[in-house]
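Reminder: ligand-aware prediction takes two inputs, not one.
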Amino acid sequence: MAKINENYLELEDSYLFSTIAKKVAEYQKNNPDKKIIKLGIGDVTKPIVPAVIQAMHKAVDEMGTSEGFRGYGPEQGYEFLRKAIVENEYKDLGIELDEIFVSDGAKCDCGNIVEIFGEDNKIAITDPVYPVYVDTNIMSGKKKNIVYLPVLEKNNFVPELPTEKVDIIYLCFPNNPTGMAISKQNLKKFVDYAIENKSIILYDAAYEAFITEENIPHSIYEIEGAKEVAIEFKSYSKTAGFTGLRCGYVVIPKSVKGYTKSGDLVEMNKLWNRRTTTKFNGTAYVIQRAAEAVYSEEGRKQIKANIKDYLENAKIIKEGLIEAGFTVYGGINSPYVWLKTPNNMTSWEFFDELLEKANVVGTPGSGFGVFGEGFLRLTAFGTKENSIEAINRIKQLKIN
Ligand code: PLP
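Here is what comes back for the chain with pyridoxal-5'-phosphate:
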């Protein structure tokens, strides 16, 4: 008799975005003439930039020649990309490190990282939160180990330090779903906490490229001491429109160490390397060449222009909502706008109202955790026309 992993039974029935997709499909089926504007799921809409496309064409052609053909590549990623990451993402910020593992995206990395941690860690996860951190801990039997750090309006959506001793802390800034960023001073408090408590911070910087303000860290390693206590996840998905191409990376400095039960120190890098070489055969060569092209002169320019457009959409959405009388957060260092539902509606009530009366799809805040209740997330990843149209429709709702 095959036994299942019963931890899976502890999970919510379906992933948040599958529930939304089902609701939207149902509404569209019953209202085929309505034009629905989807500002729900955080997926990009702009085509891949020409510099990246050219790099992929070149790599594809290479693969068709006996000199250029590649079979299995290094599990950790090709040297050309790892070097480009070190130079462009870290050296430019004055950070010296080279412990990069290239992957097929941050979702897998954030999810798989649980495997190199022991059973009895106390795990702090912010709430509301990108659901992957919670679900993957539940899948691995750690539901009871999770403590939630409320992310509240009164604290400008920056969590307070854990009030009890925790071993692992998940942080994501700029944040999904709130769209809010963390200052260097506030992040330093978490790094100091981790140093003092021998904890490890899992820092998700998937939205780093959207930072526009000064004093917001682009990498946790900008904070003194972080190289001893932080693992950082990054992705080309939102930065360069790679949601369909799939490429990201995780940084695990050799100085980040965990403990054995008997108190010996072990490099987390070593464990992740062991896991990677056993379970992963590398990101496709063509895709790694595509990621490398993100750092070319042309690539940088083209990608910057796309991000600027998305941030312009965020501004249109945010300012439009404020004009319409909403209380709104995010959208400055992030493609996400986090709005307070009007008239004390629940997140799902306002989701339904938006879908039915404005034909606009958002993401209910409560889907990201209990402290997301009473909020809704809109993304700036649509087109400018759709962002304007969506706001015009929302303005007609007359919320007060
Ligand atoms: N981390 C956060 C906070 C995200 O919001 C997302 C995607 O929406 C990811 C990671 C996943 O990124 P990737 O496409 O690289 O798997």
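The chain is about 40% helix and 15% strand. Residues 297-323 form the longest helix (27 residues). We will return to this case in the review session.
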